[in-house]
Amino acid sequence: MIEVKGLKKSFGNLHVLKGIDEVISDKEVVCVIGPSGSGKSTFLRCINLLEVPTEGSIKIDGKLVELNGINETRKKMGMVFQNFNLFPHMNTLDNVAIGPIKVNNVPKAKAYEEAMELLKMVGLSDKAKVYPSSLSGGQKQRVAIARALAMKPEIMLFDEPTSALDPEMVGEVLEVMRNLAHNGMTMIIVTHEMGFAREVSNRVLFMDEGIIVEKGSPDQIFGDPQNERTKSFLSKVL
Amino acid sequence: MEILELYLKGITVALKGIPITIGVSLVAVFIGVLLGLIIALQKMSKFKIVRWPANVYVEVFRGTPLIVQALILAYGVPQLLQSNDIPFKWPYLIIPAIIVCGLNSAAYVAEVIRSGLQAVDKGQMEAARSLGMSKGMAMKLIIIPQAFRIILPALGNELITLIKETAVLSYVGVVEILRRGTLWNASSFETFPAYVGVAIVYLLLTIPLSRIVAYAEGRMAQSDRS
Prior knowledge:
Chain A is α/β, with parallel strands linked by helices. Chain A is 39% helix and 25% strand. In chain A, the strands form two sheets. Chain A has a six-stranded mixed β-sheet with strand order 6-7-8-3-9-10, sandwiched between helices. Chain A has a four-stranded antiparallel β-sheet with strand order 2-1-4-5, with helices on one face. In chain A, a hairpin with a 2-residue loop joins strand 1 and strand 2 (14-24). In chain A, helix 3 (92-103) crosses helix 4 (108-121) and helix 3 (92-103) runs parallel beside helix 5 (137-149). Chain B is mainly α. Chain B has two domains: 1-17 and 175-226, no CATH class; 22-174, Orthogonal Bundle (MetI-like fold), CATH 1.10.3720. Helices cover 82% and strands 0% of the residues of chain B. The longest helix of chain B has 33 residues, at 191-223. Classes of the chains: A alpha/beta, B mainly alpha. Chains A and B meet through helix 2, strand 6, helix 3 and helix 5 of A and helix 6 and helix 7 of B.
């Protein structure tokens, strides 16, 4: 369970998050939507302290997330980035296996075996020995998901995972995420894919100008939004 | 025919200096890279007290001529120690020569490495940290290997520069390429063939190296098109 209390984040005079309170239960799939600049990515990045909050607290299973001991906390949280951020000097298999080998001291043979399983799961076992530069965007993002999963996280954070993809590659990445959701992974997804958000999430948060303006089930948010800003945003993107 | 032989003699004399010149340059670049990496990391620290010595180091070694540094270490330091009743003499003058070239090179390489580290995409550090890696581990496994690929051509250029710079070591008793030519000139008075021979031998080293660097740069540019 993730508990976010009074979360604020400022960059100098720019107040990106102005007080976020939210509880996300285990196995919940939560999509965060909203216009660009609304703070949704910052919110996500605060959860694993890639951004250090200016104020407020984040607790995971009752334990405060703080810089002291952050490496242990991050092992439990996989993160997938908009720009993939695969390690370009390692092949696909090494990209997936390096976390377990170096961070969790998993024996190499076992780590590679598990990495291979994960590559199979995302449909890329034939690309194990290939370097990221020769993969398509969709393939890169699927490897990035496998890399995050290799640490056996309890929570997966997705920061606009399909925003940098060509349209024809969005589907393959969403398919992998859909499977994860169905298998009971706790997921927080910042996304612009409204159809996917509606289909896969248990709950949708609509953010604007640094606060959560409206939240509810996908049917509520997409079918019967109450707030004017939500309505206006959805009318533009749907 | 006799003239041609003179020039050939000039070249063959200078050629004998190659092992020393190359040896000093390679060891110096090696020291330069190791020390330069440490200085670069220091310069990127968030703590002023860590950055400060690194900045002073770079200022001093880049702000004074290599020959002055070489004279201080090769002759000045022994004199200082001896005048304080510490018996000290360099067993071989090539030792202070290598040290000073390494220390000097480190100051330049530090800047190269720092720019290389900063050229690695910020997302790489974030991805590594999000896997639970410590900052040091992420640096070692993810950032530094990529930075070195980026700066490899610049390091090649540093080696080329150093090969030429080591000529000043002929003033502190190291018998490298230039010193060989100077000595032959002193005994034969064939000044022009002697120094032209020296120049040709330097070119024999620097031209192939700069070709290799250019080739490596081309390869890099290709592999970056991802």
